[in-house]
């Protein structure tokens, strides 16, 4: 009798215990499931988020030729951005096989949320530009950003002067767009070109490197409401340490201070 009672109690206890562990199992399962869903959504989300901290594969959705060595590549985001890319910022692209990275400045409309347009000039021996020029529609390409090069805000300065260097007319990308803009906004955008090797006919603007006279005539005089941005290849007078060589000399001579001349990162603002 005692034995039977003891056995029944033992069976009850086992049943309770197994009920308890089933309950535990279900609760753990529910919480685990919720946790996993949150984790998965978060990690899927961060995998689709365009950020300066991780490379995101973007899809080439359009390729538009500009001239013999330059094309515009439209790269589509996996989902729309929450806010537009700031003006005066660049993106970084990576070749996974070599881990080589380069910067490009998006030229897409400022409020665009679905894609970026990169205007890429192909260099014959250039690693990344050749790789980009070999991309086809539908290919994916690793991009991260934006990296803000100049925290630009509208009207931050009354006048902004920009100096860059070209050898040939063909080197001036978006030449017609700039022409159109300066024609439509003559009081806001004035452009003066100087070319080291100008076309033989019909060239009415500057010839040779940027000179002191050219700066005096075309760049607003030094003043705290003026910002001057400088970039260009080494032939334009850039020193080997990437600081501005020749131009620094001219600007300094004309009385521009470090604040008006450049911001530390401005060497990276544009390209040629
Ligand atoms: C902030 C920023 C924004 C930029 N935005 C743009 C943009 O919007 N569009 C754009 O087209 N570019 C842009 N650039 C330039 C771009 O990042 C690359 O530098 C450019 O595309 C060349 O890269 P690459 O790998 O093709 O050439 P690289 O391999 O770096 O070669 C560059 C040049 O050096 C020469 N070269 C390479 N190796 C050798 C060697 N061993 N000996 C001698 N010469 C050699 C090449 O022929 C080429 O002329 C930007 C740069 C910066 C910093």
From TrEMBL:
<dbReference type="InterPro" id="IPR001433">
    <property type="entry name" value="OxRdtase_FAD/NAD-bd"/>
</dbReference>
<feature type="binding site">
    <location>
        <position position="119"/>
    </location>
    <ligand>
        <name>FAD</name>
    </ligand>
</feature>
<feature type="binding site">
    <location>
        <position position="128"/>
    </location>
    <ligand>
        <name>FAD</name>
    </ligand>
</feature>
<feature type="domain" description="FAD-binding FR-type">
    <location>
        <begin position="53"/>
        <end position="153"/>
    </location>
</feature>
<dbReference type="InterPro" id="IPR001834">
    <property type="entry name" value="CBR-like"/>
</dbReference>
<feature type="binding site">
    <location>
        <position position="129"/>
    </location>
    <ligand>
        <name>FAD</name>
    </ligand>
</feature>
<keyword id="KW-1133">Transmembrane helix</keyword>
<comment type="similarity">
    <text>Belongs to the flavoprotein pyridine nucleotide cytochrome reductase family.</text>
</comment>
<protein>
    <recommendedName>
        <fullName>cytochrome-b5 reductase</fullName>
        <ecNumber>1.6.2.2</ecNumber>
    </recommendedName>
</protein>
<dbReference type="GO" id="GO:0016491">
    <property type="term" value="F:oxidoreductase activity"/>
</dbReference>
<keyword id="KW-0274">FAD</keyword>
<dbReference type="Pfam" id="PF00175">
    <property type="entry name" value="NAD_binding_1"/>
</dbReference>
<dbReference type="InterPro" id="IPR039261">
    <property type="entry name" value="FNR_nucleotide-bd"/>
</dbReference>
<dbReference type="InterPro" id="IPR008333">
    <property type="entry name" value="Cbr1-like_FAD-bd_dom"/>
</dbReference>
<dbReference type="InterPro" id="IPR017938">
    <property type="entry name" value="Riboflavin_synthase-like_b-brl"/>
</dbReference>
<keyword id="KW-0560">Oxidoreductase</keyword>
<dbReference type="InterPro" id="IPR017927">
    <property type="entry name" value="FAD-bd_FR_type"/>
</dbReference>
<feature type="binding site">
    <location>
        <position position="102"/>
    </location>
    <ligand>
        <name>FAD</name>
    </ligand>
</feature>
<dbReference type="Pfam" id="PF00970">
    <property type="entry name" value="FAD_binding_6"/>
</dbReference>
<feature type="transmembrane region" description="Helical">
    <location>
        <begin position="20"/>
        <end position="39"/>
    </location>
</feature>
<keyword id="KW-0285">Flavoprotein</keyword>
<feature type="binding site">
    <location>
        <position position="104"/>
    </location>
    <ligand>
        <name>FAD</name>
    </ligand>
</feature>
<keyword id="KW-0472">Membrane</keyword>
<keyword id="KW-0812">Transmembrane</keyword>
<feature type="binding site">
    <location>
        <position position="121"/>
    </location>
    <ligand>
        <name>FAD</name>
    </ligand>
</feature>
């Amino acid at each position: 009798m005692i034995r039977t009672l003891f056995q029944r109690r033992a069976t009850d206890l086992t049943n309770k215990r197994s009920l308890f562990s089933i309950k535990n199992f279900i609760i753990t399962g529910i919480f685990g499931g919720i946790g996993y869903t949150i984790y998965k959504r978060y990690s899927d989300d961060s995998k689709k988020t365009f950020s300066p901290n991780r490379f995101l594969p973007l899809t080439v959705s359009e390729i538009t030729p500009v001239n013999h060595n330059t094309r515009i590549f439209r790269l589509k985001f996996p989902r729309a951005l929450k806010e537009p890319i700031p003006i005066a910022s660049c993106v970084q692209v990576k070749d996974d096989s070599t881990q080589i990275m380069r910067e490009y400045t998006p030229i897409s409309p400022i409020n665009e949320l679905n894609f970026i347009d990169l205007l890429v000039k192909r260099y014959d021996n250039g690693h990344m530009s050749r790789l980009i020029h070999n991309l086809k529609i539908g290919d994916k390409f690793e991009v991260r950003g934006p990296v803000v090069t100049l925290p630009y805000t509208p009207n931050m300065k009354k006048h902004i002067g920009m100096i860059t260097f070209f050898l040939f007319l063909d080197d001036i990308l978006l030449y017609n767009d700039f022409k159109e803009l300066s024609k439509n906004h003559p009081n806001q955008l004035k452009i003066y070109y100087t070319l080291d090797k100008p076309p033989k006919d019909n060239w009415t603007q500057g010839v040779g490197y940027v000179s002191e006279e050219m700066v005096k005539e075309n760049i607003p005089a030094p003043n705290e409401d003026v910002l001057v941005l400088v970039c260009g290849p080494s032939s334009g007078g850039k020193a080997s340490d990437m600081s501005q060589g020749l131009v620094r000399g001219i600007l300094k001579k004309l009385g521009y201070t470090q604040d008006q001349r450049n911001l530390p990162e401005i060497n990276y603002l544009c390209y040629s």
